[in-house]
Amino acid sequence: MQLAQESSPLVDFQDVSFSYKGSKQEILRNVNVIFKSHSFYFLTGDSGMGKTSFMKLIYSGLLPTSGKIDVFGANTKDLNINTLPSFRQQIGIVQQDCELFEHLNIQENVALVLKLQGVEAKRANVYAEELLAWTGLGEYLKRFSKELSEGQKQRVAVARAVIRRPKLLLADEPTGNVDEAQSKRLIGLFKELVKMGTTVIIATHNRQLISANGYCEYRLKNGELRQYNSLRGTSSLTAQLMRKA
Ligand SMILES: Nc1ncnc2c1ncn2[C@@H]1O[C@H](COP(=O)(O)OP(=O)(O)OP(=O)(O)O)[C@@H](O)[C@H]1O
Ligand SMILES: [Mg+2]
Prior knowledge:
Blueprint: H1 2-6, E1 9-18, E2 28-36, E3 40-44, H2 51-58, E4 66-71, E5 74-75, H3 84-89, E6 91-94, H4 106-116, H5 121-134, H6 150-162, E7 168-172, H7 180-195, E8 199-203, H8 207-213, E9 216-221, E10 224-229, E11 234-235
Parallel strand pairs: 3-8, 3-9, 6-7, 7-8
Antiparallel strand pairs: 1-2, 1-4, 4-5, 9-10, 10-11
Helix pairs in contact: 4-5, 4-6
Bound molecules: adenosine-5'-triphosphate and magnesium ion.
């Protein structure tokens, strides 16, 4: 029972096409792909190929032009003003341009997520402190975002996204501004989350990160999504993606 649940699809793209209104670029063309629960994925592709748009399609920030996307068993097109908040609560999102509340220090920024869920303030602050210490920011708790480097802000955004232990973590270039040691540390944190049952999808340009970790990679190019076996370092289009073919 547990095994079946663990391998069930968490995100299911069915014949999905997507273009921005008025744009000729096909970001996705008839894409079929499944992201399973309890798994770790890299989403790669050159700049402008649509990684951020792909993430937005998953969290229902964008809707497909055609086809359907099921996330946690619900069609993202059917979400409405009442159901969207609880849907999004199950997803941790690290935006590419991570924005923090400027009037709150970083501990408050991270703790706020829990406080909004009704966690008692003292406990939320302790969790936030622990997580920030883990990302290497233990000495910066009382700093405000304008006093941090881009890489430090990114680490705060990661702490904020993972503090609720979401079912699904979407991290858009989370290691874009951090050095190699910090990248490794963040990947270590993401791996821990996967062990605890989270599915992690990381959009990245950093090929070194992928070869060092050997997880499943999906690459976006000209509207197609291909799966690469990064463990062997060779590329192969899998039948899994072509389940309708
Ligand atoms: N709101 C929008 N309206 C129209 N076109 C858009 C919009 N947002 C993005 N695009 C275009 O869609 C394409 C994909 O953009 P996206 O940001 O998803 O790419 P990306 O792979 O994340 O790029 P990067 O690696 O630079 O972050 C680009 O050509 C971009 O110009
Ligand atoms: Mg992007």
